[in-house]
Amino acid sequence: MVSDVHGNAGDLAKAGEGADALICLGDLVLFLDYADHSRGIFPDLFGTENADRLVELRTARRFDEARDLGRRLWAGLDVDRETAIEAAVRRQYAELFAAFPTPTYATYGNVDIPRLWADFAGPGTTVLDGERIELGGLVFGFVGGGLSTPMRTPYEISDEQYAAKVEALGDVDVLCSHIPPDVPELLYDTVARRFERGSRALLDALHRVRPRYALFGHVHQPLARRMRVGATECVNVGHFASTGKPFALEW
């Protein structure tokens, strides 16, 4: 299990060694590395100093000013914004999807662009969103993307759309999602010093379905990496971009 790969293709190529399958819970793209502001699509286009400023504004939750900065920088380029971002994302996806072992089961993160995945997912990679599969006698359900936030990342959907995907899974043994269920200890990022958004629909499913595991990522430095909610063991499988280490699920 890996999540929040954010451009770490080198470690991704080794993540499935010794495992029967690799499961990826999204956020392949690296738009901006908050630990190293020189890495990612944004600094490649606008330089590290502008990346420093953007991180400062976002960390201070001054999102309107951050968007104003972005608009000014894009206006100064000779290339269309969507064209430049898609070209950069395609370059990252080409390298990252090539690193996936066979078999890989993957769902989208909030910074991913779902419509591009079909161009890169090979026959050994199965993409699932609001869908379920059976692995080793257990039923795994997958819910990709994130909920609406002031950050306005590429794959954010409404609470109602997200809940419909969770509902479509039915009974599962392992509930796999990019974002966590709506539990404060699982949502608080101790470095960013803020709560990320979690899903109430996922939390309701834990009480209703009682899966063995709920596995997710999204929160890079969580207050609690794992905890029980009723009968379910909830596990943040880790910020793979920084650790390079997968989480092993065995049964």
TrEMBL record:
SUPFAM superfamilies: Metallo-dependent phosphatases. InterPro entries: Calcineurin-like_PHP, Metallo-depent_PP-like, UPF0046_metallophosphoest. Gene3D superfamilies: 3.60.21.10. Residues 2-222 form the Calcineurin-like phosphoesterase domain. This is Metallophosphoesterase. The lineage of its organism: Bacteria, Bacillati, Actinomycetota, Actinomycetes, Kitasatosporales.
